[in-house]
Amino acid sequence: MLKRTVFFILLSSGFFGMKAQQTIPFRITKHNNIIVKTLVNKKDSLDLMFQIAMKDYSLSPERKRKADHIIFNKEELSDHNTVEIGKITQKNARFFDNQLTGHEADGKIGTGIFEGKAFKIDYDNNQFVIYDAMPDVSGYQPIGIILDHDGFYLAADNVIDGKQQQEAYFVLQSGFSGAILYSNKFAEEKHLDKILKITGEKTLKNSEGKTLTTKQAVLPYFKLGENVFKDVAVGFFSGELKTQNVSYLGADMLRRFIWIFDTDRKTAYIKPSKYFSEPYYKMN
């Protein structure tokens, strides 16, 4: 009887000590975008790009696969959809119509699938991991984050002139293929067009003749937590049109780490991934 009791205690403690988890496989495109295979309403097989800056789903007007079983109203909204991703099923999923997405994708998938859970973006093994309880984060570095309107914001340091660190807030933007895109305000206040080495630019005009110039440049140093990157490829806009209100930490920088987000979305834990020292993505 004693042996049985001891065995039961050991068995129970083993089960209770485990962190229940589920995984979602993904693939990464040459543009650094994450693609997830989904089945919607038991009928429509779609490749959706993971967009960390949104919660719900969307379809692109340029999608390659049919989505005939997602019914939209006049406001281009569709509620009460069922999305299957591997062994995971999400009900009452909301889709937006006619939203542009990344290469090789029929639409976008947001963070709603992780609602109320801690989750990992594991670039080393091409998978998301969803946890019922916080996993062991030994070897990871904590980074404070702010969740605002479905966007994850964090602070990082930018060394623009080779000397002084300039702190800025970035929203994580997995749909942007590059490493860093600065807001109009930051670019103007820090005189990026005069201080940074410009490697390329392109000017566009709208129907009213107003100009928008995209510029690619080299940032001497970028520091995220304890991690320092040198000669980072960055982008910013100049011209009459002021459209970039926030700075992006894009997919090229995201992929350089493995990320774990806590349940409350107040802390991200990061450690270098296999892409940490890869060459920077070159924007067209």
Task: Walk me through the topology.
Blueprint: H1 2-17, E1 21-25, E2 27-28, E3 34-40, E4 44-50, E5 57-59, E6 77-85, E7 88-96, E8 107-109, E9 118-122, E10 127-131, E11 141-144, E12 146-148, E13 151-159, E14 165-173, E15 180-181, H2 184-189, H3 192-195, E16 197-205, E17 211-224, E18 227-239, E19 247-250, H4 251-254, E20 257-261, E21 267-272
Parallel strand pairs: 4-8, 5-7, 14-19, 15-18
Antiparallel strand pairs: 1-10, 2-3, 3-4, 3-6, 5-8, 6-7, 9-10, 9-20, 11-21, 12-13, 13-14, 13-17, 15-19, 16-17, 17-18, 20-21
CATH evolutionary superfamily of the largest domain: Acid Proteases
Largest sheet: 6 strands, antiparallel
The CATH architecture classification of the largest domain is: Beta Barrel
Count every helix, treating DSSP H or I runs of 4 or more residues as helices. Answer: 4
Give the quaternary arrangement of the chains.
single chain
Could you name the CATH topology of the largest domain? Answer: Cathepsin D, subunit A, domain 1
* Form type: globular
Which CATH C-level class of the largest domain is it?
Mainly Beta
Order of helices and strands: HEEEEEEEEEEEEEEEHHEEEEHEE
- Tell me the total number of β-strands: 21
Radius of gyration: 21 Å
Description:
- With 284 residues, this protein is mostly beta strands.
- It has two domains: 21-131, Beta Barrel (Cathepsin D, subunit A, domain 1); 141-272, Cathepsin D, subunit A, domain 1, CATH 2.40.70.
- The protein has helices spanning 2-17, 184-189, 192-195, 251-254; strands at 21-25, 27-28, 34-40, 44-50, 57-59, 77-85, 88-96, 107-109, 118-122, 127-131, 141-144, 146-148, 151-159, 165-173, 180-181, 197-205, 211-224, 227-239, 247-250, 257-261, 267-272.
- The chain has a six-stranded antiparallel β-sheet with strand order 1-10-9-20-21-11, with no helix packed on it. A six-stranded mixed barrel has the order 3-4-8-5-7-6.
- Strand 2 (27-28) and strand 3 (34-40) form a beta hairpin.
- Mean pLDDT is 90; it is low at 5-18.
